Amino acid sequence: MLSISFSPLIPDYALWALGAVVALLAILALASRGPVAILRAVALGLVLLALANPALVQEDREKVKDIVAVVIDRSSSQTLGDRSPMTDQVRAELERRFGSLADVDPRFINADDGSGDDGTRLFAALSNGLADVPPDRLAGVIFVTDGVVHDIPPSVEGLGFKAPLHALITGRPDERDRQIKLLEAPRFGIVGKDQTIRAQVMERGGTGSALLTVRRDGQVLSRQQVRADTPFSLQVRIEHGGTNVVELEVEGLPNELTQANNRAVVPIEGIREKLRVLLVSGEPHAGERTWRNLLKSDANVDLVHFTILRPPEKQDGTPINELSLIAFPTRELFQQKIKEFDLIIFDRYANQSILPSSYFENIVRYVREGGAILVAAGPEFASYGSLAQTRLAPIIPGQPNGSIIEQPYKAEITDTGERHPVTRDLPGSEQSPPAWGEWLRIIGSQVQSGSTLMSGANELPLLVLRREDKGRVALLLSDHAWLWARGYQEGGPHLDLLRRLAHWLMKEPALEEEALRASAQGRDIRIERQTMQETAAPATLVAPSGAESSIPLNETRPGLFTAQVASRELGLHTVRSGDLITFVSIGPANPRELMEVFSNTEALAPIAEATGGSVRRVAMAGDQSITVPRLLAVHSGTRFSGGDWIGIKPSDSAIVRGVSVFPMALGFVGLVLLIGSTLAAWLIEGRRRA
């Protein structure tokens, strides 16, 4: 390629100024001297041209292939229906057709889901994939997508290239789908009260109504018909503290795109206004204030404490009106308001005829309906006044054998206790013997039911837990926990033990013996299975698309099995293990990819048409065949598409292999021209004067 270039010997502004002066002198010379002044103008022009320093440039160029970018949409919405195999067929056909274009180099770029909830970002993937390609080498862009794109530039100027853009749309125009959309969903709720959830069933190609199933923690609450595209409200009772998982699931349509959006999950954190605890202490003892101090230190606990200082059989002649003691309100506590308490603690309480048998029956009923009691036993538990001799006996997990062992011993965690969240990993338990102080007394008992978590002297049971219908019972067979609190022999983890024990009784979700939990970090899902069994069956992970996978669990600590797995899909995942179920969301619970599921040709049409390109479907309704347009090179014009073809614009790009420069204004030729023009002007003007 041959061209002329200029490299001025003086600044550009000086050259232009000099050019203006030369032009003015030439005009004046022509006006005053006539045509003979043309030679002077030529001479001045040659001087000006010499200062411009022209040169002939010869470039040795090698033609390079044009780049055509083919962006393949691999986002989550492209997995719906038969879009994924349709996309693979279109790509294979494009590869075959590019093989017949010798001067075109196709570049295939995969576009996955955007980070977070960014949706489908094809233009960002295009920009990243062409970072090393000059814009003038790009001959065309082809999108293979369902048309649901979330980063479309507002105008053609934002593209950064001038090549035609074509979109080949997967999916079919007769797609149908039904989904449920949450309008209002509470995050927190008071235990025992109802919360309102507002939602709406949206559909295309549906029947106008759908069957809605409502579940809480995997249990079906109701089934009802709801109208499509009409908001509705649901009342859901918050049954317990911690996470209450409410599922709204609507029945699917035949041949719908996906059922991943047919379910919405609302995790509602149950909050207790106050955990009400009734502490009933028997005769005063050294450890009485241990329980009181522990419960009073918890701001979420409302404590009612009574100590029996004057049993009915005590008669010393003091008139009743002179006693300063408060009468024990047995009827109010154990008959009228017993259901208001979350936990009842009997601390070294002996049956002294204060509570009639009917009240013990009320306590048994209270436990079986969901309440909890803790018996912190002392020597009275082995006497005739033991609570095990009352009508509480059916729910107390151990029966005293009449022995009271008073000798130093270190509390040991049993094999069962090592698996239980209440006693697992207690500070100091990692050593053998445990790194905590000794206790000095234990009450002999025969455990009939429940789980023994700790043992004492002579391997006697020390701490026993039991479930009774909907309620819970704990039996602590020593009154010497206060030795840890007082720092005897460096003390022990009394706060950890007693607080965990009280909160297990009050159904703290984190202390459940059988539990399934899942959490997300980025694209990784961590599964935790708490169990009292020695092994744990694999968990089942259900992706938003409905795909199931079995996840083996490995024991990391006694009773705790975990696994970590990477997820390929955004949205709400379901984890099941036996009767347990939990949910974990990768990214948003309701991602954009599943909120806009229908393929369309409208979104990309304006930007494609502005570049001279086109948007068209590769499959029509009821037609199983795939139609890919022909590829043609269009060297001129503003339209690059036709009925059965799409065009690319060749760029004539080349790589410069060498450059040769030939100066024109310097050297012998330039000198001859300048001297010749000056001599000619002198001779002609001289003859004219003569």
Automatic annotation (TrEMBL):
Entry's transmembrane regions: 13-31, 38-57, 661-684
The reply to whether Transcription figures as a keyword in the UniProt entry is: no
UniProt entry keywords in alphabetical sequence: Membrane, Transmembrane, Transmembrane helix
Please give the name of this protein: Glutamine amidotransferase domain-containing protein
